[in-house]
Write a structure and sequence with these properties.
Layout: E1 2-8, H1 18-31, E2 35-39, E3 43-45, E4 56-64, H2 69-82, E5 97-103, E6 108-110, E7 119-121, H3 130-139, H4 152-157, E8 165-167
Antiparallel strand pairs: 1-4, 1-5, 2-4, 3-4, 3-8, 6-7
């Protein structure tokens, strides 16, 4: 199972509201040969860690592709850039954030080099983020963390407190 997380809290020039930009990013990925198998509902979440910026729209998608984890990460970063993402500071507001969460249970810690971006699998902070785990549980109720084997329900039960998140009615 290949899982990506999607998030945005700023409008894009071309697509408008964050939710529209996220849907457009999924369409863009499918146009490059990535198959969208399923997608969670969208969720609104307060910035985490807490910050003075708009709430995010988040979701996760299960995809299929013939790309390696490194090539897929490069594609995700390329799409972010095409949508106007600028990486000025960590946890800054953004028009698009695409994270590779799980790639068929692989465990990988690759530094960025000339021939590709850094990739860490599973995503190193997924277990801390309600905006990843709640949508993931929606599409993969039996998912287990590749490193420690913990069931998604247990990870959700142990989320750090104070994360504000609600499902968006579509």
């Amino acid at each position: 199972m290949i899982v990506i997380a999607l998030g945005a809290n700023l409008e894009t020039k071309r697509y408008g509201a964050p939710q529209n930009g996220l849907a457009a990013a999924l369409r863009h990925l499918t146009a490059t040969g990535v198959t969208l198998k399923t997608r969670s509902n969208w969720y609104q979440s307060a910035p985490f860690p807490t910050a003075d910026q708009p709430w995010y729209v988040n979701g996760v998608a299960e995809i299929a592709c013939d790309l390696s984890p490194v090539a897929l990460m490069a594609l995700l970063l390329s799409v972010e850039s095409e949508f106007g993402r600028q990486r000025n500071s960590r946890n800054a507001a953004r028009v698009l954030d695409l994270d590779l969460i799980d790639y068929n249970g692989e465990i990988l810690n690759k530094s960025a080099v000339d021939n590709g971006p850094a990739v860490q699998l599973p995503h190193p902070r997924l277990h801390e983020r309600a905006f990843v785990l709640l949508p993931l549980a929606e599409i993969a109720a039996d998912w287990r963390h590749p490193e420690n084997g913990r069931h998604i329900d247990d990870l959700i039960a142990e989320l750090p407190p104070g994360q504000k998140i609600e499902r968006v009615c579509e």
